[in-house]
Design goal:
Elements lengths: L2 H13 L4 H24 L2 H18 L9 H26 L7 H8 L7 H12 L2 H11 L5 H8 L3 H23 L2
Helix pairs in contact: 1-2, 2-3, 2-4, 3-4, 4-8, 6-9, 7-9
């Protein structure tokens, strides 16, 4: 069964009151891991990623009935997950600006103490570099680098031109490289 047929079945069953919950369970089962890892790469923390993913699927439950099928279901889910992740990150940055934290880089501490993070010092520096990117560049970098999403698909998810996405990715790669090189030279 192809991806489109399966999504069509999910959408068809979701529209029927008797099979709505079953269809939603199918959707969550099919996309949960992909959505989680997309979010996780953006927010970094396992618990935060779970919270954001839960919010994503609540929004999907509330909005799926009105899904117009202008795009693939996968594209729509990624758009919601991306927007929820950015909202979460911005909220966390506002709270961090208010709180007084003596640790110069709480992200380093968080990554080292995260039982789900298995990286060495270079991976920590890469995560720090990615985290330092502006939100748009961060999203583009993660979709392209980790998800290997084609620019055409990314254009639909982020509602931006392919040219702008290529430029954002190029700038993000340069910034990540410069950040990691500067850390290695310290």
């Amino acid at each position: 069964m192809t991806l489109e047929i399966h999504d069509d079945l999910i959408l068809q069953q979701f529209r029927e009151t008797a099979t709505r919950e079953k269809a939603f369970t199918m959707l969550v089962t099919k996309y949960q891991q992909r959505v989680y890892w997309h979010i996780r790469r953006m927010v970094l923390d396992h618990d935060d990623a779970n919270d954001v993913a839960q919010n994503v699927f609540i929004k999907v439950w509330k909005g799926l009935e009105n899904f117009r099928e202008d795009s693939q279901l996968y594209t729509w889910l990624y758009r919601i997950a991306t927007n929820e992740s950015i909202t979460f990150i911005n909220s966390k940055k506002r709270k961090a600006a208010i709180s007084i934290d003596k640790d110069k880089n709480p992200l380093t501490r968080k990554l080292k103490s995260d039982p789900y993070f298995e990286g060495d010092e270079i991976q920590i520096n890469i995560q720090l570099a990615i985290d330092s990117l502006p939100n748009k560049q961060k999203v583009v970098f993660e979709l392209r680098y980790y998800d290997e999403m084609p620019y055409e698909e990314m254009s639909r998810v982020l509602k931006t031109s392919e040219g702008a996405l290529k430029a954002s990715f190029h700038h993000a790669v340069k910034k990540v490289e410069e950040f990691v090189k500067s850390k290695l030279n310290q």
